[in-house]
Amino acid sequence: MGLTSQSSGINVLRESFNLNTEKKNPIIALAGNPNTGKSTVFNELTGLKQHTGNWPGKTVTRAQGYYLYHNNKYTVVDLPGTYSLLSNSTEEKISRDFICFAKPDVTLIVTDATNLERNLNLVIQITELTDNVIMCLNFMDEVKKKNFSIDIKGLIKDLGIPVVPTIAREDKGINELEQYIEDIINNNIIIKPEKISYSKKIEDRITKLIPALKKQYVELVNYLNFRWLALRYLEGDNKIFETIDKLKQNLIIQNNNPDVKGEL
Amino acid sequence: MNSYRDQIVKDIYNKAEEIANKNVKNKQLDRYKWEDKIDDILTSKLLGFPIMLLLLGAIFWITIVGANYPSALLADLLFWIEGQVTKLFFALNSPAWLHGILILGVYKTMAWVISVMLPPMAIFFPLFTLLEDVGYLPRVAFNLDNFFKRAGTNGKQSLAMSMGFGCNAAGIISTRIIESPRERLIAIITNNFVPCNGRFPTLIVLATIFMGGVFDHHFSTLIATAVVVGIVLVGIIITLLVSWVLSRTLLKGVPSSFTLELPPYRKPQLGKVLIRSFLDRTLFVLWRAIIVAAPAGVFVLVFANTDIGDLSLITITANFLDPFATLIGLDGFILLAFILGLPANEIVIPILVMSYLATGAMLEPDSTEALGNILISNGWTWVTALATMLFSLLHFPCGTTLLTIKKETNNLNWTIFAALMPLLIAILLNFIVVQLIYLF
Amino acid sequence: MFLNELKTGNKALVKKIKASGEKRRRLLDLGLIPETEVVSKRKSPSGDPGAFLIRGTMIALRSEDTSLIEIKPLNKYTEGR
């Protein structure tokens, strides 16, 4: 029962995001702040003829495509650009729900190297939610033009995730991204992101909350990141718990009647 | 709860700052001086709005001037092809009615749409895309937000409107960047008042014949441009007015938040953008010409050649509509053309011409002069042209756009409203303008 | 002093956000947490919104939002480049 519900459970989740679960292609999610060249990366990966404009909020539909690397097919989903996963705007909700529930195999975060500090905000938030993260450091040509430098090795060490410098609009660095993605999917590399630790007061509360949450959502123990969930609980994020409650109901129904498809 | 949230956000930002400070060397905090200077000019009290107007005018002017030569070339090419194919028909001894439907109806309509509509679209779209790519459009939203706020909505609506210049259906989709559902709905309903690529070749052609043609050649393109810009401004004003009314009546509410990033200026990849946009537009127009214009051509041809008594079906319908149409500055044929043009705006003029020509055959696309003659000989004056342009600007959205509205709003009632409300406004405004003109 | 009162060209540090709920979340997520440096860069030709440099990003904000952000003004901003 455990194995079946696990595999059918994630399919239920993925299907609610309109992902074709029969194909079993690895799913790569593209996340990032608005205006980081995310759509350019998407185009370079998938070759889709999609126009990329230079104003925020341009990617408001969810673009989906695929690419082939070493004869394997990878599905790419371009999420809306957001500054954070915490607020309740539609774009943020879409990105967060996708990473949290559809569980992409790899999340590729496209960042603007000329504005690292702001972009790191989202990177840190995403690494709290999932381990399989690659950071794409885009606009490296602008870094050169503005005469400053970035210590990439230092970033890798401080973040604990792969950091790939790119100039997406010149197709530079895209191959390295594809290689890293393949390595992660094949378990050739294991990523252990450096997790942020909060103040003692918060950490104490998290430690107390996790077992309580696990008990309440026992059906979802294998799907969800409970530390992340505990933080959302502390923040008073009702929306995510509404979604999770629905999910829990669906899985209970699914376990009792495998033919019924749930809806999020 | 409040304090946990604050603390969590703070901790994350502090960590981001720490990592960034450690690994970024020698960075200056601010933008280039020239970027600031440009922004200061583009958003200045003195120059901000004039520059916006000028840019719009410049894009239209380049489109008008640039489209002439390719239009003529295409027309010649397509006419030559028509001649060859006709010879083939002859050689094969095919029946006249077949030649009539396929060549005079389908082919000629397609040829007209392609040679008249394609060049302006293929020029305008890449130009506008360039503007987008550079990063100018958020500055437009920045400049205009106050007006939209007073109309009860949001500066981001201007971004959806600028997408609407390309295609209203695309404009509808782009309203997704507006977070408030109420404001989003207003932006969707009013997007129609921005003339799309299918409509402003019509505006350009009519403006060139009836307004520009009055002056000698040097000024005619400038005048035509000015008229088109003027019509666009009317559309913008109506958008703001309608938004204002909707915000106080059917879609009551307070303006929501407005957060917009003004991205740094990025050098647009000229070659890539222009080529991709150009090909994109060209394919799109060709596809539309086949799917929409061709069947429409056949339809009108049949309608024009099916007689009840002495008159063709078209003439009968047009005569029926005529009294009402005259009230709003049009005539029965024009109104009928608009109605039949529901599937796509670019076929309105072809349908009109075919109806006028009684035989239902389309004329050669190469001459605005020929077009002008046909219109004038059917009673057109500059007033008719103005009324037609206004009606084109304001009337109901095309079929594709309506389908998109239904899909995006998931609400049949609002979709119907989005079709009828503009029509009502078009009728009203036309009526008022025409009466005012006849008063003087 | 509040952010909407900051003259164009001047720099300030964020002290407190006097908003709650959804609005507060939104402003926080833009990076307007205490001790963050903000520069008032320019105003729209119609007076509102204003453009502010926050953590390296230029963001447009209306006065109904900036009037809720309490700040401590710093010295006049001088061009760095």
Rough outline of chain A: globular
Oligomer: heterotrimer
Helix content of chain C: 10-25%
Number of domains of chain A: 2
Determine the N-to-C terminus distance of chain A.
Answer: 22 Å
User: Which second-level CATH architecture of the largest domain in chain A applies?
Assistant: 3-Layer(aba) Sandwich
Estimated structural class of chain A: alpha/beta
How would you characterize the overall build of this protein?
- The complex is a heterotrimer of chains A (264), B (440) and C (81).
- By secondary structure, chain A is an alpha/beta fold.
- Chain A folds into two domains: 2-185, 3-Layer(aba) Sandwich (Rossmann fold); 200-256, no CATH class.
- Chain A contains ten helices and seven strands.
- Chain A has a six-stranded mixed sheet, with helices on both faces.
- The longest helix of chain A is centred in the C-terminal third of the chain and has 19 residues, at 238-256.
- Chain A starts with a helix and ends in an 8-residue tail after the last helix.
- Mean pLDDT of chain A is 82; it is low at 1-8 and 49-60.
- Chain B has 440 residues and is mostly helical.
- Chain B has one domain.
- Helix content of chain B is 75%, strand content 2%.
- Chain B is built from 18 helices and four strands.
- Chain B has a two-stranded antiparallel ribbon.
- In chain B, a hairpin with a 2-residue loop joins β3 and β4.
- The longest helix of chain B has 44 residues, at 48-91.
- The mean pLDDT of chain B is 85.
- Chain C has 81 residues and is of the alpha+beta class.
- Chain C has one domain (3-75): Ferrous iron transport protein A (FeoA) (SH3 type barrels, Roll).
- Chain C is 16% helix and 41% strand.
- Chain C has helices spanning 21-29, 63-66; strands at 10-17, 37-43, 50-54, 57-61, 69-76.
- The longest helix of chain C is centred in the N-terminal third of the chain and has 9 residues, at 21-29.
- The N and C termini of chain C lie far apart (28 Å).
- Chains A and C meet through α4 of A and α1 of C.
